[in-house]
Design brief:
Elements (H helix, E strand, L loop, with lengths): L2 E3 L1 H30 L8 H25 L1 E3 L14 E6 L2 E8 L10 E3 L3 H6 L7 E6 L2 E10 L1
Parallel strand pairs: 1-2, 4-5
Antiparallel strand pairs: 3-4, 3-7, 6-7
């Protein structure tokens, strides 16, 4: 399954893999070694905690490698007529202007204005153009957005 991501986001994933394979693996191995030196492993909390951290780190490395393998680079678009992946757009909601960027789910960060193309709000905006009114259903009711600009 493709993972839609910006070139910057892909670079960040690659950097995280390198960090986890080098720095974090080494630090965890040192913690395991130090814990082994404490003696009886059956009741050694430090050892079991370090082994659990090792498993979580290896699982994250595997997840990141799969994401990198399946990555489809989405470049930022500018001046487009329709909202799509990579588009930054301005909407009016409740009398205020808000700026969003449509990104793949792996880069989504709603607090930073990066909305996933798979989220309910992302699905509602996808393929819309300037001037359109977009209704988004939320648990607290429906919210109306007017698309003001795509850049």
């Amino acid at each position: 399954m493709p993972i839609y991501i910006s070139s910057k986001g892909l670079q960040e994933l690659k950097e995280e893999v390198i960090d986890r394979k080098t720095i974090q693996r080494r630090a965890i191995a040192e913690r395991i070694s130090a814990a082994k030196d404490l003696g009886d492993l059956s009741e050694n909390f430090e050892y079991h905690e370090a082994k659990e951290e090792q498993g979580l780190n290896e699982a994250r490395i595997s997840q990141l490698e799969n994401m990198i393998h399946d990555a489809v680079i989405v470049d930022e678009t500018s001046g487009g007529e329709l909202i799509g992946l990579g588009a930054t757009f301005v909407v009016e909601v409740g009398g205020l202007d808000k700026t969003y960027t449509m990104v793949g789910s792996s880069e989504a960060n709603p607090l930073a204005g990066k909305i996933s193309n798979e989220s309910p709000i992302g699905v509602a905006f996808f393929g819309k153009k300037v001037g359109e009114l977009v209704e988004v259903s939320t648990p607290s009711g429906s919210i109306s957005y007017r698309i003001k600009d795509i850049h």
